[in-house]
Automatic annotation (TrEMBL):
Its cofactor is Mg(2+). SUPFAM superfamilies: S-adenosyl-L-methionine-dependent methyltransferases. This is Small RNA 2'-O-methyltransferase. Keywords: Magnesium, Metal-binding, Methyltransferase, RNA-binding, RNA-mediated gene silencing, S-adenosyl-L-methionine, Transferase. Residues 294-384 form the Methyltransferase type domain. Belongs to the methyltransferase superfamily. HEN1 family. It catalyses: small RNA 3'-end nucleotide + S-adenosyl-L-methionine = small RNA 3'-end 2'-O-methylnucleotide + S-adenosyl-L-homocysteine + H(+). Pfam families: Hen1_L, Methyltransf_12. Residues 1-242 form the Hen1 N-terminal domain. Residues 256-269 have a biased composition (Basic and acidic residues). The keyword S-adenosyl-L-methionine applies. It comes from Actinophytocola gossypii. It comes from the Bacteria. InterPro entries: 3'-RNA_MeTfrase_Hen1_bac, Hen1, Hen1_N, Hen1_N_sf, Methyltransf_12, SAM-dependent_MTases_sf.
Length: 464
């Protein structure tokens, strides 16, 4: 099996840093299906190509019980397409060999890992149950230009028609991590087969690899069903988790769990927690006299849309790591002249964000792995260094007031942690002291005498 990834981003040789594989060496990896090799057939400043070659012994897969035993006919283990047709076996090798790149980590070139770069992907033999048009339906909405050319059954006998295989070429401008994650999920979906036993762990793999882009994909249900081998229970569980992710960037829906305690059911609808949070942010920005504001982790642009309603905010910038979220934000804010949308990460310093009056991180920090929080603080308070920083995050103590939230669970499956009031205060004060800011805390939402408010807001003001 063969898959190649090329870039024309200059210097193109930096692809080796992103993939964590040196261009000057051929590397060999033992994987469950056989042996994977990584090599660079093309390396230069203007163009670089990395190739993943997977050598599979289909007979050994059956005899060692690493593959399915039943083939439908007695010669199936000898007569099959596994050695050369891309499938779930290649997807597994992709995750094993390029796992760090798929997570978007690159200590040598962190800014490049967070940047969308021109990419070309070539899979010369790919089973495609649904035809070339199906490949376009899967990859097209993700920003790829798709060329899926059917492979004839036998070039010597054109009358026999085309096989179910295609020669797939993709071209687009994406983060490399996003491209690899999409291939990891969609290769077995196109084949509509898994060459290993599918268990509940596959749900977590799907959500991890597809969380940023699959939630809003128009073929989400079909992708989920095929990826999970048509097991309805698993597919339903995955759909539920992806639906939650789809709602995450858009907090417009009223949060019925907050704001109704102590009021009659006939009262006029109280503001949702999301609405109260936006009102608190706007109030603090106005009090600070901020005119040029960055929404870091802007999602689909809900806060930006609220800021646009006030002409006091003269320049607005939205930054997000999710390309699909930025596309939806662009559609929402298409007519706005005061807004720029940038692709970037909260944990990497970005010169484009320096010199603004304020930076807002609304419900963002809890989505960052704790070891990356010092990098976030350095990027925001050290490099960007605005006059005002606003940070909102859930108050973990308030979770006990929600009967619908099981004990010990976070408010969202993508949260890496949730701070108590003391925990958030300790982090805020440490960051403020390290970077020359003063900090104060503001409760957002109804304040409970025992557990506080559901949302915590820290207001950082830069010292002279």
């Amino acid at each position: 099996m063969l898959l190649t990834v090329s870039t024309t981003h200059r210097p193109a040789g930096d692809l080796g840093f992103l993939l964590h594989k040196h261009p000057d060496r051929v590397q060999r990896f033992e994987v469950a299906a056989g042996v994977a090799h990584v090599m660079y057939p093309e390396v230069g400043d203007e163009r670089c190509t990395a190739a993943l070659v997977l050598e599979v012994d289909p007979v050994d897969l059956v005899r060692s019980a690493r593959g399915p035993a039943g083939e439908g006919f007695s010669l199936g283990q000898y007569v099959n397409d596994r050695p050369y047709a891309a499938s779930s076996l290649l997807a597994v090798a992709l995750g094993r060999v390029f796992g760090t790149a798929m997570k978007g980590r690159c200590d040598a070139r962190p800014e490049l890992a967070a940047t969308a770069i021109p990419l070309e992907v070539h899979v010369p033999v790919l089973p495609c149950r649904g035809g070339p048009e199906f490949a376009a339906r899967l990859f097209g909405p993700l920003g790829w230009a798709v060329a899926a050319n059917p492979i004839p059954l036998d070039p010597a006998f054109p009358a026999w028609g085309d096989s179910r295989y295609v020669d797939l070429r993709l071209a687009g401008t994406l983060r490399l991590a996003d491209a690899l994650a999409q291939l990891y999920v969609l290769l077995p979906v196109l084949d509509d087969a898994k060459h290993y036993w599918v268990s509940g762990d596959e749900i977590d793999k799907l959500v991890r690899a597809g969380g940023d882009w699959l939630a809003a994909h128009p073929e989400r249900q079909l992708i989920t069903t095929r990826y999970l081998a048509h097991q309805r229970g698993y597919a339903a569980a995955a759909e539920a988790r992806l639906a939650e992710l789809d709602d995450r960037p858009d907090p417009d829906e009223p949060d019925e769990r907050v704001g109704r305690t102590g009021h009659d059911a006939g009262d006029e609808r109280l503001p949702s927690l999301a609405e109260q949070r936006r009102a608190a942010i706007l109030g603090e920005l106005r009090a600070a006299g901020a005119a040029r504001v960055v929404d870091l982790g802007c999602g689909e642009g809900t806060l930006l849309r609220a800021l646009l309603a006030d002409s006091a905010f003269t320049e607005l910038v939205g930054v997000d790591v999710s390309v699909s979220a930025l596309r939806r934000a662009a559609a929402r804010l298409a007519e706005a002249q005061r807004v720029r949308l940038l692709h970037g990460s909260v944990t990497y310093a970005d010169d484009r964000l320096a010199g603004f009056d304020a930076v807002v991180l609304s419900e963002v920090v809890e989505h960052v792995d704790p070891p990356r929080l010092p990098a976030l603080a350095a990027a925001v308070f050290g490099a960007a260094r605005p006059a005002t920083v606003l940070v909102t995050t859930p108050n973990a103590e308030y979770n006990v007031r929600w009967d619908t939230l099981p004990a010990g669970e976070y408010r969202h499956p993508d949260h890496r942690f949730e701070w108590t009031r003391a925990g958030f205060a300790a982090w805020s004060e440490q960051v403020a002291a390290a970077h020359g800011y003063a900090v104060r805390h503001v409760p957002v939402g109804p304040v409970d005498t025992e557990v506080g408010a559901p949302t915590q807001l820290a207001v950082f003001t830069r010292g002279s």
